[in-house]
Design goal:
Elements lengths: L1 H25 L2 H6 L2 E3 L2 E2 L7 H10 L4 H6 L2 E2 L2 H5 L5 E3 L4 H14 L7 E4 L12 H6 L3 H17 L4 E2 L23 H16 L12 E5 L18 H8 L1 H8 L4 E4 L3 E2 L2 E2 L4 H11 L5 E3 L4 H7 L6 H11 L4 E2 L3 H11 L5 H17 L11 H7 L3 H14 L1 E5 L12 E5 L25 H8 L5 E5 L12 H10 L2 E7 L20 H11 L3 E6 L7 H6 L2 E4 L7 H9 L62 E8 L3 E3 L3 E10 L5 E11 L10 E10 L4 E9 L5 E2 L5 E2 L3 E8 L5 E9 L3
The chain binds 1-deoxynojirimycin (NOJ).
1-deoxynojirimycin binds next to loops.
Pfam families: Fn3-like (PF14310), Glyco_hydro_3 (PF00933), Glyco_hydro_3_C (PF01915)
Main location: periplasm
Subcellular location: Periplasm
Length: 750
Amino acid sequence: MINRESKQKEFIKQYYEKRIDDLIGKMTLEEKVGQLVQISPSIFGAFGLTFDETIEKLINGEITPAEFEALERNYREDEIRQGTLGCMGGVHGAEKSNELQKIAVEESRLGIPILFGLDVIHGYRTIFPIPLAEACSFDIEKIKESARIAAKEASAAGLHWTFAPMVDISRDPRWGRVAEGAGEDPYLGSVIAKARVEGFQGESLDNPESILACAKHFAGYGAPDGGRDYNTVDMSLQTLHDVYLPPFKAAAEAGVGTFMSAFNDLNGIPCTVNKYLLTDVLREKFGFNGFVVSDANSIPEVVVHGYAEDNKAASKKALNAGLDMDMSQGTYRNELPELVKEGDILEEVLDEAVRRVLRVKFLLGLFDNPYRTDAKKEEKTLLCKEHLEAARDISRRSIVLLKNENNALPLKKDLKKIAVVGPLAENAAEMLGTWSHTGNPSDVVTIISGIKAAVSTETEILYAEGCKITGEECIDFEGAVRVAKESDVIIAVVGENSDMSGEAASRIDINLPGKQEELLKELRKIGKPLIVVLINGRPLTIPWEAENVDALVEAWQLGTQSGNAIADVLFGDYNPSGKLVATFPYSVGQVPIYYNNPMTGRPAGKIKFTSKYIDGPAEPLYPFGFGLSYTTFKYENLSILSAENKIGDTVAVKVYVTNTGEVSGEEVVQLYVSDVVASRVRPVKELKSFEKVLLQPKECKTIIFKLNTKDLGFHDENMNYVVEPGLFKVYVGTNSKECLEGEFTIVALD
Ligand code: NOJ
């Protein structure tokens, strides 16, 4: 059976390659270049702005989604008719995309279908938690399901391609785009990259409910100097290969159809024109055979980097480096024809890029089925009940309980009066997080609504805004204090605006902005139980909150179902199980801070001359992997079933985990390894496996991890992956700091 299937696949592949050859043979130079062009519709007279500027205003909230949709657009029908536009960004909606597709298929000379792409980052209309939050669930099946639902909705709205997942590792919470990734860990990042690719692309790309995924931003984009977006990245190749590339490799292995190059330069070469990355690593090492798209306008930006004298030189470098498609301004369209005519680009190189794009269009089934949806299907699919339920479920799983003193949580549902205060308590738009312009705030369950739906009809909810998210005005501290004094418990909802994270949203300080902390201090003085719910897109520095409030709930930006999911956790309908995937610094001065740092010769200790600060702790506020539950878990009897192993052997690591509390709960059992002595300095520990288990009260489960010794290596100075014999320590526990310890050795092969 498998054999028959793989033969069939091979046959289809060969059949496509023949059709591609045939098409390329018929294409003019302009038509070929057209396949490498992605442009968005232009907007007529939109406040006198370009399309990209308009998008920026949309993302910043200066233009509402409704205003944006109402703007008159030029959909470039003539270019489609001429066969010089192969891909469009920014077009969505079944009717419009079908209308444009019809022009491409029926009116262009060769009838090559258009590819429609968009940033569908955490849901299309049903908005899921920001990716950073979702990663905290450590729930790989749910993460995959969330991407699948995003694909179903996006494809129903006429899209074929999402510019996701973002798989950039980041160790710098000042960088706004940490919101879009899976945090700081390469192993977890790889597992999640695979799940998201599989969710978007499904089992087969030609399933009309699948969309093409895009691993971005290749590479190193998450490590900009100073945490400032688009800034230069300079790192050793070993760090690149050991830490930043694994999720990209995992995406390639999972069959991702496209990659996006990063804006930044990496060790002096802009990624857009970086042959080492785009060809040597991506195609030769990872065996990727889809196509690579630039980031928006990044080809002309190579000139701004000072790495090419003009757009023509930048285009030549880009195509020759392995960058297939130009996103945004039509630089390839303007420059490539002449470069080919003048012999500066070989026609074979151009043809190869065209082939890669056409291949993906064939794999999506667009030649046989160019209209994959219609308005009816779109209406039925978006925001349907099943999608909302799934969103609520993954949202509550993404919440991380950071503190819960004196069992402040869960709350009883029959309290007389609950004060819900703070600028994010009744807010809908800010729950959606970054990259959610296809969502609609009117779909959002606000926190107040979620709480009202959860409590008894007798319970009174008193609301006061207190202050704004940003700005120095106190607004209504008195009102907040008044309702708080009247109530049994205070729930304060504070955090960031959606546009304080995401692209071009790096922060110099990562504390609670505006007057929010002052508001919390006023509320604390009242002496009633103070529960703080955080809504934010990055780790924050919140030492005062960690010290002073009764309970601290990291709820991130959870999307459409925010209020319901948060209420589920606050009132104990769901026992929180999320764990941090990014370290929470104590102070911004500690950044970059991450759990898997290389071993220093002077680890922080009591004496002065060790690696620490004179004016604050070296330890983070909350470490990677940290998260509490309404129950407690006990770890016992860590044992390693084979003390001596050869490279390639599997090491079985066994541990008993017991739920020692009164309620059932899920625990993410985490396994870390460190290579004690190696030919390069190795991290103090690295996550190598985890398992999320559900335990009933008093239940004990035996967890057996099977570690492949082949996964315990690193890259040497020639970028060869090596596993070195010697002693390895194993740590198993509830977070990266609190672990049981064991050890084993890898012996040299004779
Ligand atoms: C720029 C961003 O860096 C990228 O992630 C996004 O996909 C493109 N713009 C398109 O919107």
